[in-house]
Amino acid sequence: MTLALATTKPGGPEIFASLQGEGPSMGRPSLFLRLSRCNLACHWCDTAYTWRFTGDNRPHRDGLSFAREANQLVLEETEVIDRLLAFPQDRLVVTGGEPLLQAPALARVLAALKAARPTLHVEIETNGTVTPPPTIDELIDQYNVSPKLSHSGNPADLALIPERLAAWAQSPRAFFKFVVATPADCEEVATLAATYGIPGDRLFVMPEGTDSETLRTREKWLSATALDHGWRMTDRLHIHLYGDTRGT
């Protein structure tokens, strides 16, 4: 059994330790596992190398495509487990891409990890469109759910699935993280929050951007909006520390 992972340059699996850069766990020392493949295609995606392989013509603002053989690495589940257990961190963040597309294999990996390290805290970063099967749901301590707004370029019927949004809103393990670039995006967030009853203490707004200047500029007006609505705001700490780079 195998998992498809993203790669770092020059092509090793994207498994790394860092400080969590976003959301409710921002600043916490964490171990990251970045998986390949995604069912959505955001125009501003900063990990397009996980899905926009040569021949994939879904729009992206950079217009870049990536050779699959250099940017996707298929490993045996046992090798993934061994690589992860070599790190001492007790918080694992599984990201992508969309990790839940590989839920069966991922569930087996997580079960083995938790058996070997019972204190392991597992977070899944998801776009919120995929239902986690029970075999993996029972192993997850926290979901970081990032529904994609209209400015992502994804059709709403693919990106904003009502039954999934309602289910996430009702789960105390699910924290919402909305990527925003303009005040109009915040209006869309407010509508979704009201429609699905997303509580403010589990709703984060985050500026879109891959450089510190853009993030700081957007945070100036976004902070006031978050205060007005009772939302939480998150920075992108890893961008300030390391830039827009893989494995950070």
Automatic annotation (TrEMBL):
Keyword entries, A-Z: 4Fe-4S, Iron, Iron-sulfur, Lyase, Magnesium, Metal-binding, Queuosine biosynthesis, S-adenosyl-L-methionine
Domain Radical SAM core: residue ranges: 25-244
Gene name of the encoded protein: queE
Protein family (similarity comment): Belongs to the radical SAM superfamily. 7-carboxy-7-deazaguanine synthase family.
Record CDD domains: Radical_SAM
Protein EC: 4.3.99.3
Chemical reaction(s) catalysed: 6-carboxy-5,6,7,8-tetrahydropterin + H(+) = 7-carboxy-7-carbaguanine + NH4(+)
Tagged with keyword Nucleotide-binding: no
Quaternary structure annotation from Swiss-Prot or TrEMBL: Homodimer.
Record: residues binding [4Fe-4S] cluster: C38, C42, C45
Membrane-traversing stretches: none
Protein name in the entry: 7-carboxy-7-deazaguanine synthase
Cofactor note: Binds 1 S-adenosyl-L-methionine per subunit.
